[in-house]
Structure formats: C-alpha cells, structure tokens
Amino acid sequence: MLHEVGADQVLVWPTAEMAMMGAEPAVNILYGKEIKTAPDPDTFRRERIQHYRETFSTPYYSASKQLVDAVIEPRDTRRLMIDILRLLENKETEGRPWKKHGVMPT
User: Which of 28, 43, 56, 80 is the most exposed place for a label (fewest CB within 10 A)?
Assistant: First the structure.
C-alpha cells in the first residue's frame, strides 16, 4: 500500500499513539457543550479523554482504517525492516510533482 505521505510501508508498535490531534483537544472540541453542562465537568472530561485514547488513538484503530500496514512487536522490528528493505531494494521511484512549498518548519 502506498500511503498518502509517500511511504511504502508503515509499521507501528502496539504502544504507538496514532492521532491527528491529541485526545485532550479533540475531546474539548467534540464534547465541549457536554463538558460544560455535566454535573462534574472534570470527571466527565477525564472519562471522555480515556475513552478517546482507548478507542481512536490506538494503532489497532489506525490499522483497521488501513492507515498503517501492520502493528508489530518491537522485538520483530529489525527483521521486518530488513525484509522491507530487501523487498524495496530494486524499486524504481516515480517522480513527484513539483511543489512550491513543502512542509514548513515549526
């Protein structure tokens, strides 16, 4: 699978946190009104953050959406990287379209 970022393979460890946005700001956006009206806003927010992390920030969720190729055990990393490099050893790359601006430094 060729990923949107141009990677040939994306492997992640089970402890990876995969998210476009951290759980805290995501919960603030998604549940802002409910947090304000909850009987105990702090507890409600903490529960929503935990649920968000357990549901959407896991590498298994990303794998289920085909955003990563595999969730691997850290002990298998070296072997799998060698296998992938061997697989891609003779890969011919396609040119990418010219971009006026790349990723800007932060």
Answer: 43
Q: Look at the block and give the residue holding tokens 């998604």.
A: 30
Cα–Cα distance, 13 to 76 (Å, whole number): 10
Q: How many CB atoms lie within 10 A of CB 1?
A: 10
Does the structure show a pLDDT above 70 at 2? Answer: no
Cα separation, 99 vs 101, in Å, equals 5
Reported pTM: 0.69
Q: What single DSSP character describes residue 88?
A: T
Alpha carbons 55 and 18: distance in angstroms, whole number: 11
Local confidence band at 61 (pLDDT 50, 70, 90 cut-offs): very high
